[in-house]
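Appendix B, Record 12. Input sequence as logged:
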Amino acid sequence: MIYDEIINKLNIEDGEKIWLSSDITRYMFCAKRNGEEFSAERLLDAVCEQIGSNGTLMLPVFSFEFSNHGIYDYCNTKGTCGYLGNFALKKDGFKRTLHPMHSFVVWGADQERLCTMENKHSFGEDSPFAYCRDNNVRQIMLGTDYQRAMTYVHFVETECAVPYRFPKTFKGIYIDENGKQSEREYLYAARRLDVGTKEEFNRIGDVLEKKGVAYSTGIWEISNYSVELAKSYPWIREDIMKNKCRNIYDFDVERDELFAGFGG
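Logged structural output:
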C-alpha cells in the first residue's frame, strides 16, 4: 500500500516527533490514474500508528487572516498550507496551537505542551519552532520541497536578527476555542520592503543534504524531503551569519551593503 511505502521510504519510526508538510495533490492524481484512492485520513492514521503514543505529529496550518484582515477564529480559520492540515483540524485527537499566524495542528505525546504555548512572536524562543530545534523534530516534506515548505528558516533568521527583517506588531480580534472574542497583539518577523528579497530555499536544502542532515526520496516519481531540524540549525545559521544568506536569498540591493557590520 502507498501509505506503507511513504512510511518506509521516509523512515518514520516509533516515538518520532514529525513536522509533516505536504502537497498531496499529485498523490491523489497518481492514485486516481492507477484506479486507486489516496485518503488523507488513512495517511494520517498510518503515520500516527507508526510513531505511536510516544511520538508527536505536527501539521502546519498557517494563516494570515489576523495580519491581513484583523480577525482570527481558532476553530474555523483555515490554514494556507494545503489540504492535509485543514483536514486534520476537524479530525478527532488533533488540536491546534494558539498563535493566529503560525499555528500547527498536533497529535501525540507533546500535544498539550505545544497547544498551551502562548508565544506572542511567531518565531520566538517560546514558540513551536523553538520546540522543533530543541526536541529533535524531523520535518518531512511530502510532495513539496524546501522552497515551499521550509518556514523553519524564518525562525533561524529571527534568532540571528537579520538586517532585512524586523518584528512587526499586528492587532486584531481573536476568537478563542470557546468562542470568546478579545483584542490581542502578536508579532511576526516582517520583511523590509525596501530591500527586496527572493527566497531560494532549495539552495539551503542542497547544502543540508550535502551535510547529511537532509535527504530526498522518490515515491510514485514524486519527490519528497526529510530534514533533521536541530541539526540543520547551525548550518542555516552559518549561512546567515558568515555567508550573508547566499544559499537562502537573492536581494534587490547590494548584499555586502545590506550586511555591513553584521555577523562575521
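The mean pLDDT is 96.
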